[in-house]
Amino acid sequence: MTAVDDRPAGAAPEIGRDRRRKEDQRLITGRTKWTDNIVLPGMLHLAMVRSPVAHATISNIDVEEAKAASGVVAVITGADIKDTQGAIANAWPLSAEQKTPGHLPMAVDRVACTGEIVACVVARSAAEARDAAELVDVDYDELPAVFDAREAMKDTVLVHPDLGTNKSDFWKLDSAEAGTGGNVDEAIATARESGIVIEREYRNQRLIPAFMEPRSTVVDPTGEQITIWTATQIPHILRFLIAATTGISEAKIRVIAPDVGGGFGGKLQTTPEEFITLAAARRLGKPCKYTETRSETMVSCHHGRDQWQKLTLAATKDGAVTGLKVELLADLGAYAAILGGGVPVLGAWMFNAIYKFPAYQFNCQTVYTNKTWVDAYRGAGRPEATFGIERIMDELAAEVGVDPLEIREKNWITHEEFPFTSVAGMTYDSGNYEAATARAKELFGYDGLRREQQERRDRKDPVQLGIGVSTFTEMCGLAPSRILGALNYGAGGWEHAAIRMLATGKVEVVTGASAHGQGHETAWSQIVADRLGVAFEDVEVLHGDTLVAPRGLDTYGSRSLVLGGEALVRAADKVIEKAKPIAAHLLEANADDLEFMAGRFGVKGTDKGLTLGEIAMATWTSHVFPEDIEPIIDSEATFDANTFSFPHGTHLCAMEVDTETGASTMRAYVAVDDIGTVINPLIVAGQEHGGIVQGVAQALWEEAVFDENGTLVTGSFVDYTLPTAADTISYVTDHTTTPSTTNTLGTKGVGEAGTIASTPAVVNAIVDALRPMGVNDIVMPCTPERVWSAIQTAGSDTAGSTTDNAQPHFESGAANQDDPGSSAEGADR
Amino acid sequence: MIPASFDYVAPTSVAEALTALAEAGDDAKVLAGGQSLLPILRMRLNAPEKVVDLGRIEELRGVREDGDHLVIGAMTTYADALASAAVSEHAAVLHAALKEVADPQIRHRGTVGGALVHADPAGDVGAPALALGTEFVITGSGGERTVAASDFFQDLFETAVAEGELLTAIRIPKHTGWGGHYEKFVRVAHQWSIVAVAATVRVDGGTIAEAAIGLTNMGSTPLRATAVEAALVGASASDEAIREACAAAAEGTDPPSDLNGSADYRRALAPVLTRRAVLAAAGG
């Protein structure tokens, strides 16, 4: 039985159709169950008391005044719950040697960053809880603190004195050792003699995943099971980790992620607030709610990126890359969060990107600092890598003196070479970089913009034009369980789906991928409608509740469709398989004489047949049923991939740079992505546009800044300059399609593509605009002041390097820092 | 984001409001459009015992003409002032600045008077008000007094409005026939000005006959670029002459340094933005 194309004759296929999203009316109007909307009888409210200092011993907490305040039911300190509160787990230790500080939801005797919770007030109203929280008197004995990752590497000030070092772990991939390529040090040495060596240090700044809905948790401890509603991306993983760290039986825990307003990786975490709300509810025996303020989000939701990258690229004189060496320093903040060091390590397979590098080495050092902990943020490890490689490929093009697209073409994998095993040992199943690039150039008007750029240069226009290129790939569908196991990750990477055929002909689809704005309900309905030949409207998608959808590994890493979608396909095929003998029995036909088409089993050569809906009804009643067959046609399937999927694309960006003020304005942006088969082009466009602006925001606007005391200076949207629609232009998006071979649908994943690709495209464009002035880097975010400073000093600086102010990450005289003025191989003028 | 509790009164006349303020003494805060006060209260950066809401005092709203002056009630929203044909005709630079205030939601809530009394040096109505030679009508228990623009802004978040007093209106001498432009420099659209320049000029036969320039966020109060004004008068309304006259825009300023720019960077921006503002105001 095959069910590849079972649509009603003449009916348009659902897959590929730009269906408006089923879920949007309730999500946009807010007439739905956001966690903070949930009100339970007798529910109490929590307010957190957070540390205002970055590193201190807690010498005393006086709760008496707070306890006596109006409406207060309890004040809880870390000492009260230290043995029962559970723990914030790091699921991905890089090795058995990793130094991992204990991370309790509520600090007991020491805090290691500002915003860490030291007590909570439980009161009858949120206002009373907030008022009383201000009355909790905490004595802090301040300890020395360190905020800069490079400073932390010296171990002179310790983030966690008991660890004895700030260095968490070191992780390495070497192509010579792995047998996937040559020796990178030899390649670099050869290039120093007779080729080109480009050495750069890039900075991926710290960002804040500013999801729209602040986090919120409601815990109901009454009844046999403890029910936890929470604004999370990972209800299943949270359930497991609560059980694993509190000792509560997993079977007694029900986690519900109701509608969740965005995450971007920021809700891929088990949070202190969730554990503390649980602890309070259990202690008091009453439902408890905690909803954070936006200010609390900014300092206490995990941050993203924060990485220093030293790159050494070796090439022949004509620009064929012979080796790439990567040395990362990744700032984990105060604790190893759920993925922790695993996030930067994902870059190991991505720095080599779409290129055929003969030799490669990736080194990643993770280090603690007294700042908010860092974890996944849209793209997670892959944007950092893509930024580094796409920036330095532009530098190579400048050094060779050719167009940046030409240098890429010289080094990329050609479409005839797929499947291709990369120098990092990853097998890319499919792709066509030439096709995507050709289409992007055409849509962009590449040659015309290059001409205009030259004209502006010639007439010394105060507004210069720059063109930035980013030809990216990413690994999606996190992740094959066997690879996760090899990487020491604490869980698998499969996904699950179930289909319930209701008597009335409606179809319930249960997915383990818990959406938080992605549009799964719509896309999953389209897949099932095509597969089972039922109406789009008749499919109901259920998710996010561990009681309803008991199996799943949730939503992150562009995994839902490539894994969850494939599980769904397999579950649908099982429904058809189970229905077939029933249909044969009811039709009094031989099963071999049946064909399934357009949702109906027909007897070949006759007009006799039964729809799936009729079979579902007959199964439900079971009045006339074969004796040897179980009366059910529901099904479930679990899918674990053998490998990742590899979306790719060519993004082109034109930036106008006002050399008088340093302001950069986007002129044009074209993204041609190959994400395999598109289920819903409207949803895909939404992911692409939103993803692109999120990456542009890293290039131009966003940065989490801490002051010398470890206080988050960008603690509100006044200073954390999140863009709005008013700051963007309309991006041009299009696709080329080479279906993935890793799943039946041919999908590759799109949730992170725009964010991964756009950041280097924008920075490359700004640098391209200013390169004739001798500028070869601007640190992100490329603020007008940084751009202006680079221009000011570059004009008088024959070395062609930007100022310390513009590039604070450059350490003069440090290892692996070339002097572009004196070193022939590093010069880029 | 729950403020500490406070008493709330919403008088319907200026007299009632003054009485309410007098009763509360220095523990009261005046609520106009709330676009600055409410975040401060919600973040608990301030906890007044009483909030006196002027939102129901109709006499404080609206724009009218009074001979050679425009009179803008203190509780007129940015949006209402922006929609006023009289403002557009007689105070072009204010009209231009109002367009640049934050975002539409804030413009429909925030008020001209509230912003002026809050006196954030990065706010967008101070510099045009200063450039236009605005008179500030302040009402207290002893009656009404009028303060010149040059005396109104005293320091960071400090104005001539004393405890127990209210700004009730501003009187702007009509600048009919003057061109006006507000050149605002920001990183993202909804941001406070990093630097902005309010320029209004009267061009007569290709020559700048009169000029007034207000600077936003170049010191602890809005500032007049007097050296530029002097250099502009009598200059031709040409790119070259305006460029030369605007070179001194940062003279006498004391800009802040913050995440968006150092003082030196702001000093470098001022002449560029002033030139652009004047050129646009002169119709260039």
Mean pLDDT of chain A, to the nearest integer, reads 93
CATH topology of the domain at 24-32 and 494-639 in chain A: Aldehyde Oxidoreductase, domain 4
What's the shape of chain B?
A: globular
Distance between the termini of chain A: 64 Å
The unreliable regions of chain A are 1-7, 796-829
CATH class categorisation of the domain at 24-32 and 494-639 in chain A? Alpha Beta
State the fourth-level CATH superfamily of the domain at 24-32 and 494-639 in chain A: Aldehyde oxidase/xanthine dehydrogenase, molybdopterin binding domain
> Regions of chain B with pLDDT < 50 over 5+ consecutive residues?
none
Strand order of the largest sheet of chain A: 3-5-1-12-9-10-11
Order of helices and strands of chain B: EHEHEEEHHHHHHEEHEEEEEEEHHH
CATH architecture of the domain at 24-32 and 494-639 in chain A: 2-Layer Sandwich
Portion in beta strands of chain A: 15-25%
Major β-sheet annotation of chain A = 7 strands, mixed
What's the CATH architecture name of the largest domain in chain B? 2-Layer Sandwich
Largest sheet of chain B: 5 strands, antiparallel
The CATH C-level class name of the largest domain in chain B: Alpha Beta
Oligomeric state of the chains?
heterodimer
Most extensive chain-chain interface: A-B, 30 and 24 residues
State the share of residues found in helices of chain B, binned by percent: 25-40%
Quick synopsis:
Chain A: One of its GO terms (molecular function) is iron ion binding. Chain A is an alpha+beta fold. Chain A is globular.
